[in-house]
Every structure is written in C-alpha cells, then in structure tokens.
Design brief:
heterodimer; A: alpha/beta; about 40% helix; B: alpha/beta; Four Helix Bundle (Hemerythrin (Met), subunit A); Rossmann fold; seven-stranded mixed beta sheet; four-stranded mixed beta sheet; 19 helices; 13 strands; globular
Chain lengths: ~775, ~425
Amino acid sequence: MSKQGGKGGAAAAKGKKPAKPGADEKREDVLQAVILADSFQDRFRPFTLETPRCLLPLVNVPVIEYTLEFLASNGVQEVFIYCGAHHQNIESYIRESARWNPQSSVTPFQKLDFIRVNDANSIGDFLRDLDKRAIITGDFILVHGDLVANIPLDAILAKHRARREANRDACFTVVLRSVGEQPHRAARARGITPVFVVDPTTGRLLQYDEMHPLQSERYLQLDPAVFSHGEFEIRSDLVDCGIDICTPDVLALWSESFDYELPRKNFLHGVLKDWELNGKMLYAEILDSGYAARASNLQMYDCISQDVLDRWTMPFVPDSNLVHGYSYKRVKDGNYVEHRVVIERGSKVTKSVVGSATTVKAGSTITGSIIGRRCKIGKNVRIENSYIWDDAVISDGASVVHSIVANAAAVGAGCRVPEGSLVSYQVRLADGVQLPSKPPARISTVTDDLRPAETDARLVGAGGKGALYEVPRDEDESDDEDGPSYDPAVLQSSLLYSLEGLDIAASSVSSFASDSDFDSDVDDGDYDDGISTAESADMGRGGEFGLGEGPAGPSDAPSKSHDSFHNDAVHGLHDALRDAAGNDFDSAKLEFMGLRLANNASDAAMRRAIAVAFARRAAELFAPEDGAPGLEAAKAAGEALTSKRGAVKFVKEVGVGGDEVGQQAEFALALQRALASGASGKLEPPRAGLLLAALLQQLYSLDVLEEDGILAWWEDGRGEEGETMKAVREKCRVLVEWLENADEEESSEEEEEDDDDDDDDDDDE
Amino acid sequence: MAPSQAGHVPTLDNLIKSFNDLPLEASMDSLIFLLKRRQIKGDDCAKATAHFLRHVVAKSKWTSVNHLIEQVRSYGTRLAQAAPLEPVIGNVVRRVLGLIRDEAAEDRNADDVASETASDIQDIQSLAPGAPPPQPLQRATTASPVRPTLGSITSGLLVSNSMFNLLSVAEPLGSPLTGASTPMSSALHASVHALRSEVMDGIEEILDEINQADDQIAGFADIQIHPGDYVLAYQPTKTVERFLIKAASKRRFTLLLAGLQVPDPSAEPPYAALRKRLAAAGVQTINLASNGLMAYIPRVNKVIFGAKAVYQNGGLLVDSGCCVAAQAAHEYLKPVIALCPVYKFTPEDPSNEVVRGELGDPSSYVSYANGPAVDLLDIENTVTDYIPPELVDVYLTNLGPQTRHHLASILADHYKTEDIAFSLQFDEDS
C-alpha cells in the first residue's frame, strides 16, 4: 500500500504528463493477471467430477487455452492461476503444454505461478489469499479460467489508469459486453440476469443486482442514493464476461469483508451498496464490439461453441490453430477439418468441426457439431448440434441430437440420444438404447463422491456401463421459503434452457396482501425483461420519499423485499408479544432491528410492521379465534401494549420514532389501517374501531401518543378513504372529542394554536 | 500501428525490438502467435519475416551453408504455415534462401559468382525501364565513399562484405578490388563469419526494398494517370494512397473512392486523411456508396487497387470487394491496374483456401448485439478476394509496369527453383 501511495505522489508531482519517470514506467509495464481456475460450482457435472471446467474441450480446445491466449494477446506478462478442485490436472496440463509451461523458452509470460489454497471454499477465499501474498504490484486483470474473449484491453486499461490517477478510489473496472435488447442466445444462456445501474457519462457503476426467473421477488429495488447521481441507466442487456481490472485496493476490500464469496453477487453488490462506507468507485466498461463471454454453464458452452463456429471469436477460430499440434483447415460446407480425417462418400458433414484421425462412415449426417479426435462415427449416424469429445464411438444408425458425449464414451448401434443428454466419460450405451428425453438424462460412471456408480442396466441396456447422475441439491438453499424454491443453478446446469417443470411463482403479491394493507396492485406487465425500468424507478423514488414522509398512500407500491421484511417483522413481534413465558421484549426488539438492517427497511415500513403486530395482538386478545369470550377493548389494548417490559418504549422509540406530530399521526394511521384491513384478525369494522379507540387511548395514557398527534391523525384525510376505514375511524370520535375538550380545559391559548394548525391543514387539502 | 504508446498489446515494433533479448525459439513463437492472432497482417508480415530471418542468420548456430539453408527453411516453413493466407511470408523466405545460395556460391568460386551475380543485378535493373527508382541510386551514392577505406583493409571478411555492396551497385568499379583481395584460402570459421554478415546485409537490402517499394511504385504514378482521368480506387491500401498522392502532385484527375465501409458516426470518415491531402493538391474525390460503383464504371478511365499477393498464373489476392470492381471494369473494357511490389509475387498457384477467400468475423455486417440475427443467420464475411488473371491488365511493380506475360521472368529473377516448394517437405512433421 505504501508503495502505491508513493508512486501516486510521484506521478502527481510529475504532472502525469507523457514524460513519466523511468522507474515508474518499468513497474507499470509488467501487466499481471490472475486466473480463477475454480468456480466452486457444479454446473458442468457430471463432466467436472473428473475434469476441471477449464480443461473441458470447447471446440476441441481446452477452455483455459482461450483464456491464456487472450491474456497473451493483450501482452500480459505475469500470470497467477488459482486452482481449487482438480488442481493437479490443471497444473500438469500447463506443465506439459509446450507453450505455457513456465520453464519453456517460448512462453509469452515472464512468469506463471500456480497458487493453491487448501481451505478455500469460494472465490472470495482466493482473493483474500491473494491479498495476503502481496505479489500484485499494480493494476491487474482478474479473469476466470473459462473466458473466451478477443477484445483488446489496452484502451480499457488506459482509461482505468487515467481514472485511478485522477481519483485513487476508482479502483475497479468491470468489462461488459452489450448484447442488445432483443432476445439473444448469450443472454438467454446465462440464467441469471445481471442488472447494472450505470452512470452513462462517466461509466460509474451505481448499483448491481441479479435477477432470475425463479425468484419470487420480481422487482429490483433501487438504492435511493442512485438518484443523487442525476443521470443513470439501468441495464440488463449486458453479458458479464468476468474480466475485471483491479488495483490492489480491491483485494483489501475483499479482505475487509470476510464473508464475501462471489465476485459479483457479494462483492460488487456489497461494495456498491456500502459506497458511503468504503468510498470506492467502481466503473463499468461497456463494449459494443468484440467478443467476450464465459463458458460458465452448459448453455454458455453451447452458445460459445456456436459463436466460435460462426467466427465471432475471431481470431480464436479452429483454423487459426492457436494450440500447438492442431491443424484445422476450413474446407467446403463451412467445415473445419484436421489432418487424417476420413469422411466417406455418401456422408454429409456441414458446419462442423472434425478432429484429427476421426472417421465418418457412409450415410451419416453431421450438422453443426463438434467432433473430437480419434472418434469413430458409424454408418447412417445422425448427429445434430452435438458435442462429441475425443475417442468417442457412435455406432451405426445411432442418433445424437443436441447432446454432449464425453471422452471415450460409446453410443451403441441404433441408440437414440435425445436433446439435452449428457453422456459422461467412459459411459457405454448398449445397442438400441433409447435415453429418456424428459428430463434429459445425465449418465456418468462415477457418483458424486467419485466412487464407481452401479450400472443401471435399464437405462444403458445390457452390457452398458453408467448410471443416472443426480444433481445434488443444496439442502440449506431449499428450505428458506415456503413455496417450492429453486436455485437459479437449476436453470444453468442443463444444456437446454427450459423453464418447463419449474414452478415459477406467477405472482407472489397476493400472498402478502392480507398483511400489507396497502393497495398492492402492482402492474404485472413487463415481466419478460426481468425488470421494468420505469417501474423500478418509481419504486425507488417511493422509497426515498418514504424516508422522509412515511408511506404516501396507495401509489406507493410496496416492493417485495419490504413485504418479506414486513412479514418477518410482524411475525417476530407478534410471537414475542404472545409468548406467555418470557416477560422481556428486548430480544424481540433486537431481532427486529436486525431485520430492519438486513432489509434496509424504511421508517415507514417499520412503523407499519409494528402497528400491525400490536394491532394483531390486541385483536387476538379482544376476540380470540377459538371463539372464547375475549377481554374488553380497553383491557385488550392495555394487555397488548404493557404485558411485556420494554414494549411501550419500543413502540414509542421505533414505532412512532419521535415526538413530532406528523410521526405520531402516521403511527395512528398505520394502526387504523392495520385494524381496518383485517390484517390483525377478522373484526367487523365497529368492533375494530372500538379496539382502535382503546389502543389510541392506551397509547395516549402511556405518553406514546400526544393529543396533538391523535388530533393530527383525525384531521388527516387519508383516514377516511374507503368504507371500512371510515367505519373504524368513526368509533374514535368519542375519544377525539374527549381529547379536544381536555385540551380546551387545559388551556385556551394552545387551542387557538391548534385551530390555526388545523386550518392550515385544511388549506393544504 | 497501435495508437496507444503505453499499451501492452504486442506490436510489430515491440516484437522486432524484443528479438535481441529473446532466444530464437521464443522470438519465433511470439511472431508465430502474432501472425495466428492476426495482430500482424499484410505488408507487416513481410517485414516481420525479414527481420526474423535476419535474426536467425545472426543468432543460430550453423557450420555450413547447407545447415543454414536448412534452418532458414525450417523456420520459414513454420512461419508460412502459421499464416497460410499471407503468401508474402513464403516469398521473403524464398528470397532469403536464394540470397544464401548466391552468397555461398560466390564464396565457393568468387570470380564466377561475381560475374554471375553482377549480371543478375544488371538483369534486374534492366527490368526497370525508363524511370529507374530514385532511392537505390541515392543509396548507392551514399555508400560509395566508404568503398576506398574498406578496400584498404586487408581482412578478408570486410573485403568480401564490401565487395558484395560494390557488385550490387556498380560493377565496373568493383572488379579490380575483387581480383586484388579476395583471400580464397580463409578458414572455415572465417568463411562462415563472412557469409553471415553478407547474408545479413542481403536481408537488409530486402528490407529496404520492402520499405521503399511503395515509393518506387508511386514514382510511376504520372505515367499511369493522365490529366483529366477518372480513377476509381477500391478500398485504397497504403500503397495505393501513396500512389494517388504522388499522382495528385503532378496531375489533375478525379478520384472515385469505392468500397467504403458504412461510416461509424463517432469515428472519422473513411480515408479522411487521404481526401484532405488530395484536395490540397487540387484533386477532387467522390465517395461511392457500396454498390454505386457499377453506375460509375462507364465514366471511369481506370481502376486501381493494391494486391496482397500475385500468384504465378497472374491471379491476385486482394481485399474483399476488389473483385467486383475488377469484374465491372473488365466488362466495360476499362484498364485494371494492380499495384504490387515485386516481393508480393508468389511462385505458387493459388490454393483452394485462397480462391475461396479468408473468412473474417461477421461483426462488420451484423452486430453481435443483434440477437435474432446471431441466432438465425449464417454470416460469412470474406475478407479477401481472388481475382483471376484475365481481369487484370497492368501489374504495376516497383520495377515498372508489367503485363501478365512477363510475370514468369520476374519470378525467375527473384526466386531459385529449388526454393519454390521450400515448405512442402516439412508438411509431414506437423
């Protein structure tokens, strides 16, 4: 860090004009890159059981070759590779490679080191480890081991550097590729839609969130701070290619936040959210040309393979032969063929890649497929849009459609491999086997814990080998919501993108409607885009107002995160009030505050939750559900408010939130709403009104609400909207009149003032 | 080449600089990958190859001429295979191989070779009729003052070195010196040493030739372009640009620019610099939209474009689109002039790949952001065209204008028959 500071000072002293100090330039010249070669995901299972993702063949070339070549083409000199699972495979692959072996004389990198972290469970652990090692000297490029890109980074690096020199807090640049607003295969394939809120003039990132079709929350909540930036764009049309340009400060940020795991969902989101705390500025570089994508799941793998065939990835195309020992040539019909390939007459191969020493017998049709080396394709075989890796055997008459057949797997004569099937290493399908199409089969010879799987003869036929591979489910992921919950990983772990069979919550608004008494009539349109810009902006603005004024009425559509906060908070408080054993409200209070912080709930939402919780408790005492005679209204209200020590204080401090008349009126309004809407139990309006009056009286006598507050509420027009509200309000007339009289008796001067205030209010309306 | 000086992206200049620090294999590899990644293209390939082979001659360990030839050939083969659609690489390798053979023969029998090479040189110079290229002469005059001092030095190495220069420049002065001081009995080591520097000088000359070719071709501009001409230039290359600017200094003509890419609104309009310079010289330019050139062909007097390579049958490898222009001009019997320096003449027939054209990435036609198009269309963007020989009328080389019938003699002058298929025997290895 100190070095960094010194250098910054030197640059500033020089006026950062072209004539840079020599020493400075020398150090700047070494461009470093960090490759994260483990993603801690299982989207490529069952293939990644035996091979790391970055060594899977993408158009017959291990994926990491693309990444390394990309770095080399951008003049990177030092590379650090973080390996996790299968580190020995990756290391031996690199060491055996003529080009990348660090001892080799021809390697384009001055240095290539492997770093192994034993107890790493996430990418966050890697980066925290990197911070400790202090091997990073300046700006560096952080990429994943599954990156395919051809973009020149020079200009982006220069911009990053200029920004950093102008402001030392500009420490991070994310490289993004725009894919337009129309449906795009690369956008479809990624499963999770990243949403970036960007300042279009400076490129500064303001907020980051992720959306996916399976989440119950369909709205994006904008941070109110976003609005202070004037202009901003919300973009969900970007492919995140995982190329980050970082200064070492970024690593310090990782170290500070020991719980960050994912570079996007946790780190980017978190750092942007806590901008005021850490003061760091993150930038996005949105590219409109060039190619960059990560083979981050099977669908992206599929998509990138097609892009390579279509030459979008130029120069990373088969006939560039960038990997040593490859000899692809472009021949007719859009095929790329290596040496010693035998394609018999009478077979038809189009738009495909065929590796060396593969034979294709007569009568076979191969379209849009990638065939590895030494494969044997029999007669009358049909292969469409599939990936056949090295040494696979497809016997006569078989058909393989949009599937992956891994190394040394054998598909027997006449087999049918339908769309989306994954046939892993060494699996043998006996003759005439038909694999299921729904859901597509994943067949592997090993189980999750790498033990040989027991062959399932019904699936692979007699004499076959392999069993169905079950995707392990994360236990702790699936029980945190009541409905069937899906990890977006479900979308990403299959070769085909399909929402079929997944229960996508059509609208979760209704399930909370009884608790949130606002008109939650949120427009359901625009869902296809993941978010609707106008709506989100509306919501965010509502949130901002909420901080100052409380809920602004029906137009203030509550967002889903507020709903879940509301729900949890009401339940928590209500349970605490109900709890016969404990007499202490402190823990409930603590829990509530925790929830509030976690959800970043506004004052208005808190007020609403507290009002509902206490109203519910009072209603429960007033009219128990089992039909037993309840307490009378005043007693029920008193019991609800005073039975627990600290509850009154809590209502006063948190629920009302202050001594101001407006806040008190809001709380009274919230109580009224809670009772009127039936959120607190089934009470007919007159009885609810009775209870409200009792509650207000209790609160008045407990000094939580003052008469000014109650009177302000009484004057507020919002309390008279709708029949039930009116009916409930009517019952409080007695109380209000009593309060007014009490006022008059106390002092006539104050009354005059009150009248003035009331007049003002009337004028406003 | 690259606009940013502080950039990390490897460029030709950086590469050539790095040759001195890197071992041979490493420089070889970095060059190969620059070629494969298309970070070096076109004319730069020739320069890069020449620089690299110069380096091979200087650095590699070789004990005999055959050994050296073998090495150059193997390195050259690997370079040529790295970029099968850049024939100039092979041309430069062949030139260097021929050069080594010449020097070796000269070493073996100085007198014989002396006259032979001398006549060779004469041949080449006689090929350039009328207007001898100004640069070589100038170089010759700057080199001549050195000659006496070199002659007075007794070391065999330097004498043979200087002798080479003498011969290549002017024969009559050279001959007495040759007779006087060629020590035929020098040891093997000395001869290797001598050969090394001779070959390196030879490669320097090839480099000079590559660098000066454009200027030399431009020297013929006023002969080819007449006052009042309407000249259509299809996607002018650097060579063509220089040619046109030179012509504009002497002639008033009208230039039609065709084959322009749809301009990116943010960027400078295409060929803005060229048009400015032409306008300054009083030459009007007209930009033709993509297909508009057909309509203008009847008005045009000649069509000019630069070639990437000339094959032995007279066919041309050009940037894509030129073929349309050539075809249109051919239909209207308008002369088609291809600007092609001698180092682009390739003693091969075009391969199938060349005839089919090299494929680039589709982004110049469809943006990757256009999702439906990316999904549904097969977009083939050929970046090179092959023009069959019958469509070309004049090959304007740095040695002067030629017709197709004289190409064979140019090839024979520049390449040795044994080097023509230099890369074939290595094909098996890969």
